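Record 1 of the preview.
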Amino acid sequence: MRGKAGLHRRSTAGAVWRHAVAVTVTAGVAAVGLAFGPAAEATTTGSHAAAAIPREAPAGNAFYAPRSLPRGRPGDIIWTRPIAAPKGARAWKVLYHSQALDGRDIAVSGVIVTPTGGAPNGGRTIVSWAHGTRGIADSCAPSRRRTVVAEIPGIDDYLEAGYTVAATDYEGLGTPGVHPYLVGDSEARGILDIARAARRFKDAQAGDGDVIIAGHSQGGQGAVFAGEIAPDYAPDLHVLGVAALAPATELTTMLPVASTLPDTLGYVVMGLIGFRAAYPTADPTPVLADPVTKDLAVVEHTCADGVMKHFSTSPGRVIAQNPADVNPFPQLMQENTPGSVKMTVPMFVAQGDKDDTVLQPFTDTFVKRACAHGDTIEYRVYPGTDHYTVRDASRPNMLAWMADRVAGRAADSNC
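->
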């Protein structure tokens, strides 16, 4: 559930993780995926003309925290700052309006990258990229890194294909507030609203261009949610399809099992805090051991690698009760399930058979559930690949799938 900076699990830990999952499934724990909250209505007025940026961006990290948030619709840009880009491209750090699950107007950060040269009539197709787990601390936001553009997997291929790339940091990651980690609806809004921002930013050359949503791990979960909520939340966007690589879906199985293994306890702690950020009544303290409730500052100031290392200890020192046994977490995990509604656009799903973070049985279960709703899914499993190498292994197939969507060709399905 992490991005490139995430944690490579030792092979022995991976074997334990696989065994624990097998035991859990055998014991009858339902493999149910994760989705979060209903899609809220967004104010839209159809196609929006690209607009000039209304305010000058402040220097340093003040970029992420306006002293006062100007009024704006989801996707309206607050300000931008040029950043380093690959040869033949331009890039900007952006701060834009989005909407929290409770309806509040919030600022979310990210980056937009576009090729130089003339755009096709109607604007460039936008790839809205969703990153894997980086952590919850503001310092972990991808756009705060000087190398953020280079770290977008496949960025050179996207630019060569002529796409504009928009990559959100997600709500609360870099910007004020706590990041609702693994809250799919929150992730989805950030993903859709930065696509809107790209369309409204003249220099991005997106115009009224179509949108393809893509993501890895945590971002794969967010990408699926974005595809599900887009017809209601962002009807002004013409979404062509969703590509999800090793998507984090089956949290009803994953979180309970992760609560029993030293190498995955950090996921549980971050997940509980992410739930509380979106659902204030979701109190994590009954789940966590008492010393841990006094030690949560590490999550607020440390990125994923550090959090995982910090909580890699005896499960009893971190977990007092399994989250599957403490309300409202079972209900939240079950209600927030990708694949619970029919997707209106086709999906490309990639999975590595050696993945020790998002195991193949999890993705198999998600795909089976989505197929039962009549979704159009091209599902590919890549032999010998893990949670990270599946991104490169699947890229030629994914790029071809994207090109077919842009060309208007009918999508294949192997459901």
